[in-house]
Specification:
By secondary structure, this protein is mainly α. The protein is built from six helices and two strands. A two-stranded antiparallel sheet has the order 1-2. Strand 1 and strand 2 form a beta hairpin.
Length: 133
């Protein structure tokens, strides 16, 4: 857990899908769960936490030569810029090019048909503020 927190702090494009606050909460739960107790629920909480972390590591090919080093890199598809449909390009200037910028941001969050939760929250937070104001 500490390694992931360090990665979040030091890397702008960390592959760990959770923010620092969530990681700190998990760490507190794991430390609480390490105390001796006959409660099977503590073991379940720790197991679920580690299952989330290790399934994520599996998706990023952790420990393999082809491992994803940054969250916006594709490991299954070459970096190909997909052209936008004609109607998209024609209507975009009328919306002050916002569709193009939002689509680029969305493509950074949605890589290899997976969604990084932390990146998604970074993407959606400004959109919510725009809609609320």
């Amino acid at each position: 857990m500490s390694t992931f927190r360090l990665d979040l702090i030091m890397s702008k494009y960390s592959v760990f899908p959770f923010d620092t606050e969530t990681t700190n909460s998990w760490l507190r739960c794991v430390v609480e769960g390490m105390k001796p107790c006959d409660n099977g629920l503590q073991i379940c909480v720790i197991a679920r936490s580690f299952e989330s972390i290790y399934s994520h590591k599996f998706l990023d090919y952790h420990g393999q030569p082809e491992a994803r080093m940054n969250r916006d890199e594709s490991i299954t598809q070459p970096m190909i810029h997909h052209s936008r449909p004609f109607w998209f390009n024609m209507l975009s200037p009328f919306f002050f090019w916002m569709p193009h910028s939002r689509m680029s941001e969305l493509e950074e969050a949605w890589v290899d048909h997976t969604l990084n939760l932390y990146r998604w929250n970074e993407f959606i937070r400004p959109l919510k503020k725009e809609w609320e104001s």
